[in-house]
Structures are given as C-alpha cells and as structure tokens.
Amino acid sequence: LFPNRVLIKSTTDIYNQFWEYRYSLGLSFGKNFSFHKQNTNNTGIYTSINTDYSFGTFIGSTTKPQSLFLFNPEIGIFYKFNNIKIKIGYDYEKFNTLKVSNHFVVTGIYYHFGNKQTTDQTKYLYN
Fold this sequence. Notes:
The chain has strands at residues 4-9, 15-38, 41-58, 68-81, 84-92, 103-111, 123-124. With 127 residues, it is mainly β. Strands 1, 2, 3, 4, 5, 6 and 7 form a seven-stranded mixed beta sheet that branches. A hairpin with a 2-residue loop joins strand 2 and strand 3 (41-58). It is elongated and about 65 Å long.
C-alpha cells in the first residue's frame, strides 16, 4: 500500500535510494486436525505450507527490484462453530531483509458458505 525506502549499493561507497512498491501472489495448502468435536463446534490444530511470489517496482526508475519466491510453514489452533472459523497461529517467513522479522503471529476469521450441504472432511485425532 505504501512505498518502502531502500538503499542499493552501486559502488563501494555510493548508495542509490529508491522508493519500492512490492506485490505478492500466494498459494497455500493446509490441513485441519480436530481433537474435540461437539455438535457443530470443532476445535483443533492446523498446519499449512504457503508459497509467495513477491515482485515490485521502483518509483521513477527503469531498475526493478529482485523478485523473490518465498516458502513458509505455518502452524496454529482453530475453533469452528457453525459456519465461522477462528484461527491463531505462528508463521515463519524469511524475507532476507534486516528491518523485517521472520516470525509472525497470524490470525484469521473465516465464514464457510453452504456448509450444511457438504460433508465434514476433517480428520479427527479422536472423538
């Protein structure tokens, strides 16, 4: 949403400053493992593997920043009641920059449409 200021080394003692816009396309594969189910309520852990392709532009320059392919695992807990699922977890994403931490807390709220027509495909650790 907002540009980020970056410094690119051009010679041993000269740096060029650019304003960078970065974009990302992602794909995620995940699995829920329930350990408690009662009526329409469901609690458990989840794991997922996420991939991101990150690319960007420098404002006012024909030079482009390096494109990145990022791979990051995620693990956490979820609680599902009726058609709403809430999750909180930990995500490790290696950005290779000094200013950004590799560790993230992720949260999510999801609404599942048409859940009454489908069968539950969640694998249970025990009932």
